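TA notes. Do not distribute before section.
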Amino acid sequence: MPLIDFRLLAVQRKHDLSDPYERREYVKEALAVVKDAESATVREELLGRIASLSGVSVSALARDLEQGGGKAAASEPAAPRPSSEKPQKKNGANAEIQAARFVLAACLLSKPYAAGCDLSARSFADEEHRTVAAYIIQGRKDGRVRPSELFDRMDADGELSEILNLDYGDNLDGPSAEKYFNDCLCLLDAASLSASIAAEREKYKTASEEERREIIQRINEYTKRKNSLKKQGGGRT
């Protein structure tokens, strides 16, 4: 299944098309996907599919597409649009999930700025994220990373859909996307170091005196690395 077909299917599965409001939202989000079609032939075929599901004529859909339809699909992005701002950590878990999705999307879709990102050196808390990361790592070794190969391995309505839905417009392209990508890496690395520090503190409670000295050294090292990330301000890849 081509990537654009999967993205369109993912949008369809998000909505109850028997509900008028949901159908309107489906059309808006589906048109945002169709805008990225590689040719007029593909766009026409996809518009026909949307028309059959929504009850809106192909000509009306085409007019909306020409007028910028799908631009304001409020529920489409799973993470904030890249900007010069760092990922916000109002809710730590959510921020880390959003950062992981963006990093994996950029690597899975082979964005130039993500080429040097070593996913094997990073840990992902979510099992589906680990599956995507493992595929990318192996795919790079084999010289072939194709998102469509993941469709048979993962739930189409799960995290894979959230990751691929980030590929709209220039969301993953340009200097702002690269800056956001680096900030996401910094956030993920800091979260991993925090988890390592917490784990060492737990070990400390039942450790011998000699073991405690080693644990303290490791905690100090992790803390230095974490503080270094803060100073760098997301400049790592």
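Switch to the second chain here.
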Amino acid sequence: MAWQRGGNRYLGVIAPNATEENAISAHVAAILPFFGLYALTGKRWQKIVTILSVPLLLNLIILANSRASFLAVLVIGILSFIWIKGRLRWYVLLALVAGVFMVFMLANDQFIERQSTIQNYEEDGSAMSRIYLWNGAIEMWKDHPAGAGGKAFTKLVMDYVPELVEVMQDKGVKTVHSTFFLVLVEWGVVGIFLYFGFTFHMFFILGRIRKRSPETPGYSYYVDAMAIQMGIIALFLPGLRIIGSILKSIIGLAHLPLSFKIYRLTKC
């Protein structure tokens, strides 16, 4: 458990498109909305499974100690209270209070110390290195506005981030730690337009599904669409700060709203 293990961020596990702690915790944050909403609206066995699973998922996020993923969890918690209407909103509030209690019970000193650096990023070496990398990515994009091609950042980073040259020579070339900057550098303005356009279009489809949920067979469509939206947000936020493989996961989630759309067309 997190309070026993302390500050070791190495989990010893990997997953598809997630080979380190930041990515794994981002994927876990993305499925939390499904667990939370099904704990409120699912069948009895679904409620039991999800309620028993949530503490384990929170424990993993604390062990990974990713600031971006923890921020994503906070955002989707707030959104769940805002988006859900009626009597369920107060059950959501109780669930959020229970989640906060579990986090405080599971958290260790290293987790609290690392999360506190979100406000004081100037004092954290990891956060400052990402700022250097992002500044380098902007300069790289200025020289290659149409995109420099696949894997361009890792090949050119030494020329654009002089502040970290010695570190990269000792520990290897760093990634840009941001899906946004990765797409910008490698695929330029067109890539960024397609990336954000694709994501916003998914939200548009899901919003229409939620709006028309009374026309669909069952309240679950409304809940599923909302969970997918929150899952996309939970991946999108860490994707702005961490690895580019988050983009593949967002594309994976895109199959769900498109499946909803196809199902609706077949029923018309």
